[in-house]
């Protein structure tokens, strides 16, 4: 499975100059600070087993998550970590990225994660989990957005 054409086109419309990076190319992202958008597919519904979202189920489908990388390793380190399926679950997004099938990333040196999440929400995408990835943000409903169900996106790839 690859990224459906309609989702690729929507991302290109939002960020025409950004390069969509597949899992194996994350090492080419800058080691400096920045923000990113992860685009990934969940092959089946996922129910959170612990934490703030315990018992909440996220449906199968394509998602986008906006985050920031300000610590050691910068964008390269953070995105490379998110792209691994086997890792210690430190953040809520780890539950989803451990269960994902496909994953891609967009890296940004100058954009804030809130600006990226806002662009995704304003483009008409629904937010499945209010507060997801934005617990330290007063302005954002969520940093995770639902892009398309797998069945609807399947005919687009």
Folded structure, characterized:
The strands form two sheets. Strands 1-6-2-5-7 form a five-stranded antiparallel β-sheet. With 157 residues, the protein is of the alpha+beta class. The protein has five helices and seven strands, in the order H-E-E-E-E-E-H-H-E-H-E-H. It has one domain. 27% of the residues lie in helices and 22% in strands.
Number of strands: 7
State the major sheet: 5 strands, antiparallel
Strand content: 15-25%
Helix share, percent: 25-40%
Query: Helix segment count?
Result: 5
The succession of helices and strands, N to C, reads HEEEEEHHEHEH
| Cα radius of gyration in angstroms | 14 Å
Strand order of the largest sheet: 1-6-2-5-7
Q: What would the principal axes of the Cα set say about the shape?
A: globular
Number of separate domains: 1
Distance between the termini: 8 Å
Structural class: alpha+beta
* Mean pLDDT value: 88
Contiguous uncertain segments of 5+ residues: none
> What is the oligomer described by this structure?
single chain
Q: Layout of helices and strands, plus pairs?
A:
Layout: H1 5-14, E1 21-22, E2 34-42, E3 46-47, E4 57-58, E5 61-69, H2 74-83, H3 92-99, E6 103-108, H4 113-122, E7 144-148, H5 150-154
Antiparallel strand pairs: 1-6, 2-5, 2-6, 3-4, 5-7
């Amino acid at each position: 499975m690859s990224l459906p054409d309609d989702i690729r086109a929507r991302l290109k419309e939002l960020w025409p100059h950004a390069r969509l990076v597949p899992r194996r190319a994350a090492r080419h992202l800058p080691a400096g600070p920045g923000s990113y958008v992860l685009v990934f597919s969940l092959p089946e519904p996922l129910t959170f087993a612990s934490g703030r979202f315990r018992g909440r189920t996220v449906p199968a489908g394509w998602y986008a998550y906006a985050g920031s990388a300000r610590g050691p390793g910068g964008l390269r380190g953070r995105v490379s970590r998110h792209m691994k399926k086997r890792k210690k679950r430190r953040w809520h997004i780890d539950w989803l990225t451990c269960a994902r099938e496909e994953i891609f990333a967009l890296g940004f040196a100058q954009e804030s994660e809130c600006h990226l999440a806002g662009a995704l929400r304003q483009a008409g995408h629904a937010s499945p989990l209010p507060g997801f990835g934005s617990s330290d943000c007063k302005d954002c409903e969520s940093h995770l957005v639902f892009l398309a169900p797998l069945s609807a996106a399947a005919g687009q790839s």
